[in-house]
Amino acid sequence: xxxxxxxxxxxxxxxxxxxxxxxxxxxxxxxxxxxxxxxxxxxxxxxxxxxxxxxxxxxxxxxxxxxxxxxxxxxxxxxxxxxxxxxxxxxxxxxxxxxxxxxxxxxxxxxxxxxxxxxxxxxxxxxxxxxxxxxxxxxxxxxxxxxxxxxxxxxxxxxxxxxxxxxxxxxxxxxxxxxxxxxxxxxxxxxxxxxxxxxxxxxxxxxxxxxxxxxxxxxxxxxxxxxxxxxxxxxxxxxxxxxxxxxxxxx
Length: 251
Fold this sequence. Notes:
CATH superfamily of the largest domain: Transcription factor LuxR-like, autoinducer-binding domain
Oligomer: single chain
Largest sheet: 5 strands, antiparallel
Number of helices: 8
Low-confidence stretches: none
Strand order of the largest sheet: 2-1-5-4-3
């Protein structure tokens, strides 16, 4: 069945190596636009909840993927005017269906004209919580299927299937985020290990040149760093590179 295949494809995006959040969102939206019956464009948005100056909570866009440029333009108009199916879905945390925007011109008066221009006559948008590792993770994914035709979707059929796709998208995006976190931690550890290596090598050079102990060598590095307003690791790296270059020239 098409829904099983599409759900599987969307879920697999979370397992693909080197997949970024931006790439996963773009691929999900394109897959939905091609695979969902009646759909001519799709929009997947990741939102984060933040506290406004007045203490009220609101959702801001973290990233999004749209299968077509026109739908990107329509969504950015929604976000700017705070009117439209996608912003309503995340604000109310409920499914938002549109049979024909032209039949409901007073529903979102600042969005109707842009929707028609961008070919967003009918749509179905569902929010889904993005799984997190702690209580402070308040991200939401909205998954929307759109069409340039009125009444393009049989809500009784498409709504539960789109809800399933939204859940698979949320799980896949969580996996992508976890892998990105691991990659950042690994890069941070590499940088820390590299810094430690340079500092230890620089201390060895100073100890050999001055006949001092490790503490005195580190104090000398720190003094040069403070005097030149540089980080200790940068001073250490410069010293090691200069010493290495000198050895190579003598060789």
